[in-house]
Design a protein that fits this description.
about 240 residues; alpha/beta; two-stranded antiparallel sheet
Amino acid sequence: MAEPPLSVRQGEYAERGDYHVRLDHDWNYRPTYLAKLAAVRRYLDALPAGTRVLDAGCGEGVLVDEYASRLSIEGVDANYASPRVRSGSLTSLPFDEASFDRALCLDVLEHLAFGDQLPALRELHRVLVPGGELLLSVPNLAHLQSRLHFLLRGRLIRTANVAKHPGDRPVGEFLQMASNAGFRTLARRGIFPTVPILAALVRRHPTDLEWLHTLLTRALPVPGWCLLNLIRLGKPS
């Protein structure tokens, strides 16, 4: 029997290793990442056993490995490949039409160029069955602190530098793009409202102040104010 392929890392995974598996306690995105992961796990836990799920842009395949024994889950990523993660582009997914009941695309679209984002959403729409769902997470360029900065300085605060997030947008533009790709918005929630001063403190001390991140998200879950939006999209039957 042939040996399974070893993990192949390119791009940021070649530079930083499996950083979603071994979280840096000083990573300023850490509490937002953990809050998102908890919400996605609740979504996956509610699916019937054997549901066909695609994790598109899954990186190291954290969720693919975790749910492989209960769901029929596959991963695809442009910069990572392993026995459960296929190498492939989101703009040309290596799957037939209507191959999946559910799809995940978590913190991925912002890494694509503007011109590749709509084709990627159309590809996700194509591989879902009618009535299927896409769970999408995207950073929001127009979060609360960024809006206030625009009022004072005339420009928004990028969610990361342009090399890392070339496709940074206000969340409203992502919602419109999803609609243009054929999706309906079913539900939407925000994670981490960027209240000035408090948000900066959380970013500076992401592990010690995770409790404050949680408190802010519970108290002010206004999606338009939040750094991250988690959006449930449906493909019409």
